[in-house]
Design brief:
Layout lengths: L1 H18 L1 H5 L7 H32 L4 H33 L9 H29 L1
Helix pairs in contact: 1-3, 1-5, 3-4, 4-5
C-alpha cells in the first residue's frame, strides 16, 4: 500500500511542478500577473494540503512497516522538506505574492528557486524510496 502512495505522491509532485499549474498558467496571454499569482496562491495552498494528507497516511504506514533504516530516513527527508515548505517557504512566498497583487514591488529573493529545489529533492527521494521498497519486498 505504501509503495502505491509513494508513487502517487511522486506523480502529483511531478505533474504539479513540471507539467501543469505554474508553466501553463503563466503562458495564458490574457491572465495578468496579479491574477495569476492570486490563483497560484490558492492552488499551492490546496496542493500543500493534499501533500500533507498523503504524508500523514505514509507516516502511519511507514511507522508500521518493516522498511529499512535507509528508506525510513528517505521518508523523514521528504517529510522534513514538506514541513519546511508548509511552515516557512509557502507562507513567505504567499506574502510576497500578496505584495505584488497589491501593486507593490517585493525585495528580490530566490525563494521560488527553493520551492523548485525542495520539490526536485522530494521527487528524487520518492523515486529512490519506491525503488528501494520494491527491492526490499522482492528480497523478503
Amino acid at each position: 500500500m505504501y509503495i502505491l502512495l509513494f508513487y502517487v505522491l511522486f506523480g502529483l509532485v511531478c505533474y504539479w511542478l513540471f507539467l501543469f499549474e505554474a508553466p501553463v498558467k503563466f503562458t495564458a496571454p490574457s491572465l495578468t500577473l496579479p491574477v495569476a499569482l492570486d490563483v497560484g496562491r490558492h492552488v499551492f495552498q490546496a496542493f500543500n494540503k493534499v501533500e500533507i494528507i498523503f504524508g500523514t497516511l505514509l507516516l502511519v504506514l511507514v511507522i508500521r512497516s518493516q522498511l529499512t533504516m535507509l528508506n525510513k530516513l528517505l521518508f523523514a527527508f521528504v517529510s522534513a522538506l514538506l514541513v519546511l515548505e508548509s511552515v516557512w517557504l509557502l507562507p513567505v512566498l504567499d506574502q510576497r505574492a500578496l505584495i505584488i497583487i497589491a501593486g507593490g514591488i517585493p525585495e528580490k529573493e530566490s525563494l521560488h528557486s527553493w520551492y523548485i529545489l525542495f520539490d526536485a529533492f522530494k521527487v528524487i527521494a520518492l523515486i529512490t524510496l519506491g525503488v528501494n521498497t520494491i527491492k526490499q519486498l522482492k528480497a523478503a
